[in-house]
Design a protein that fits this description.
2 domains; 14 helices; disordered N terminus
């Protein structure tokens, strides 16, 4: 037997080291799924470059991203999602975000006050409204307890979205502020100042916080920030 025939040629060895085209396409598709976790503006600017580096560093025949790569890419994506957007927000937006976080805390304070004053509020309601049954208050209190996480999450979610410069978040908070305005007016109309002054005080504080947030979010500096964040990446870079 010819010894040369038993050894693979150089061309054969090179062909064995090249990944099959199908595996490269599968790996690229899986890398793109990971990169989809990043913000849109970042993907528009850097996705192709990052993907080229990842594919160049891939092992022969690799079909799945490594665990370390997944952890690094996902960790960076979460950091960018939670951090500031394309540009840092101005002081007006930063203050508005802080006030919205305080607004979320007031919801918890309001629940604690409702629990602490439950018996006195119930007695006052029974005295003022003959048709009010004592059992109704327990259902109302249970509704408040179960419903508190909703406004807390709403305050925090809108704080995050406005900090990122999403223009829809300003409009959404304006709707929330309108809702709190209606709540304050309805409590005054129902005579809450007589039977639940502490609860009315908390709601009034939330309304004042919302008013301050509205003034800050619709200021001139904030408007420039939201407009810049909504631009396409190339236009924002040019501005």
């Amino acid at each position: 037997m010819n010894p040369a025939a038993s050894r693979p040629s150089a061309a054969g060895r090179a062909g064995a080291e090249v990944s099959p085209p199908g595996s490269l396409a599968i790996l690229e598709r899986r890398y793109r799924r990971l990169l989809a976790c990043y913000p849109r503006f970042f993907r528009s600017d850097c996705e192709d470059e990052i993907l080229a580096v990842l594919m160049a560093c891939a092992r022969t025949g690799q079909r799945w991203p490594g665990l370390a790569e997944c952890a690094d890419l996902l960790g960076s994506a979460v950091g960018m999602r939670l951090g500031p957007g394309r540009s840092s927000p101005p002081q007006a937006v930063t203050r508005a975000v802080r006030l919205m976080r305080i607004g979320a805390a007031t919801e918890i304070v309001g629940l604690l006050i409702a629990l602490a004053t439950a018996s006195s509020v119930q007695s006052a309601l029974v005295r003022q409204h003959v048709t009010f049954l004592a059992g109704h208050w327990h259902y109302l209190l249970l509704f408040i307890e179960l419903g508190v996480p909703v406004p807390v999450c709403l305050w925090l979610w809108l704080a995050w979205a406005n900090g990122r410069g999403h223009r829809w978040a300003r409009s959404a908070f304006a709707c929330v502020f309108g809702t709190y305005t209606l709540i304050v007016l309805s409590k005054f109309a129902a005579g809450a100042a007589a039977y639940a002054p502490a609860d009315l005080l908390v709601v009034g504080l939330q309304w004042l916080i919302g008013l301050a947030v509205i003034v800050l979010l619709f200021s001139r500096s904030a408007d420039t920030f939201y407009r810049h964040q909504s631009m396409p990446p190339a236009a924002a870079l040019g501005s």
